[in-house]
Design a protein that fits this description.
By secondary structure, the chain is mainly alpha-helical. Helices cover 63% and strands 3% of the residues. It folds into two domains: 229 residues, Alpha Horseshoe (Serine Threonine Protein Phosphatase 5, Tetratricopeptide repeat); 95 residues, no CATH class. A three-stranded mixed sheet has the order 1-2-3, sandwiched between helices. Helix 7 runs antiparallel to helix 8 and helix 8 runs antiparallel to helix 9.
């Protein structure tokens, strides 16, 4: 939905009300309200009717949801995301017995090869949820190959493709490949959890979450609670006021990719001296628990994507540093006596920036 339209203003007011009653949503009534709003604001009908269809599905009235998807698809030339609507329709149809029609739509989407990752995710997960694991893996692979070949940093919207492919591959027992390695790297750089993607996608855990066996569900809930407690404990620990440090090769790569950041980092030497001066000033003002975090270009780009922003935005740099510190990536400043300097030059701190 486009911003600043009458329909969005009405939606914002309703969403605030719904947030207070999230656990008691009347999906049938909410769907009807959205359909009425779509009639009032036809320019926003696509977004409103897709949401209405979702509420119809949640209410159990899947034929009514299909009718809304058909209403949108009756004029596909006016849709912004026709492949997404078709994917949603296919997923919904399969859930109430129309497997053949759903498969035909999925085949059509794969043939059309849209450049939007969302339809791919929906149809691949529909196949996965109906135990069509090989077809799901093929679909995830087709999408990642189409959208991410020769792409240095996967856009945030494509992450579910890599993660979904990794998950289904683990369930099939497929060997790790380059796409799985990229999924592992993304998970490591974007998650504060210590649980690896391989462990998260352990087939036993995945099956347990969909099991009807109370013992299996209880065991998985206990594991998830333990992980959540560990995550909360990590976040509750005081973390340093951290200054961002770029090693020489990472700084060169950063400025090559984003020349506008040269204003922040005129030279490597000035970058290092600025770090030390800032930390000394904070220390002299009585600020405790100071530290340094080391940045890398891939993780910074992933952070920018998670913030729906561009790495060229200099205001992201301190936020990136704070996030790294919160994840336990900071090293204490000043280093212990006799320890190497934080700059990585190899000399002791006292003989380098601590002199």
């Amino acid at each position: 939905m486009r911003p600043d339209t009458p329909a969005e203003n009405a939606e914002n007011a309703q969403n605030a009300q719904n947030a207070e009653n999230a656990e008691n949503v009347d999906h049938t009534a909410e769907a009807a309200r959205l359909e009425r709003t779509a009639d009032l604001y036809p320019e926003d009908a696509e977004a409103l009717l897709v949401r209405a269809a979702a509420h119809r599905e949640l209410s159990g009235d899947r034929p009514a949801a299909t009718a809304l998807y058909d209403r949108l698809l009756s004029a596909p030339d006016t849709l912004e995301t026709p492949h997404l609507v078709r994917a949603l329709k296919a997923s919904n149809l399969w859930e109430y017995g129309h497997e053949a029609e759903a498969r035909a739509i999925i085949d059509g989407i794969r043939t059309a090869a849209p450049r939007d990752p969302a339809p791919w995710v929906i149809v691949a997960e529909a196949l996965e949820s109906h135990d069509e694991l090989e077809a799901a893996h093929e679909t995830f692979t087709q999408a990642t190959t189409l959208l991410l070949t020769d792409v240095a940093e996967p856009p945030y919207a494509t992450h579910p493709l890599l993660f979904g492919r990794h998950r289904v591959g683990r369930m099939l027992g497929a060997p790790h490949d380059d796409w799985d390695d990229r999924a592992d790297a993304l998970h490591s750089s974007s998650s504060a959890s210590s649980v690896s993607l391989d462990e998260l996608h352990d087939p036993k855990r995945v099956w347990a979450l969909g099991s009807d066996n109370p013992a299996e569900l209880e065991a998985e809930i206990s594991r998830l609670r333990a992980e959540l407690d560990a995550h909360r404990e990590a976040l509750s620990r005081p973390f340093p006021v951290a200054i961002l440090h770029w090693p020489a090769d990472e700084l060169a790569e950063l400025l090559s990719a984003y020349p506008s950041l040269t204003a922040e980092y005129p030279s490597r030497e000035q970058h290092l001296s600025t770090i030390e001066a800032a930390l000394r000033e904070l220390s002299s003002s009585g600020t405790p628990n100071l530290g340094i975090v080391t940045g890398t270009v891939p993780s910074y780009e992933a952070f920018a994507a998670s913030e729906a922003s561009s790495p060229t935005q200099a205001e992201l740099l301190p936020q990136y540093a704070t996030t790294l510190a919160a994840r336990g990536r900071a090293t204490t400043w000043p280093p212990e006596r006799g320890a190497g300097c934080w700059c990585g030059a190899g000399a002791s701190y006292e003989g380098c920036h601590g002199s």
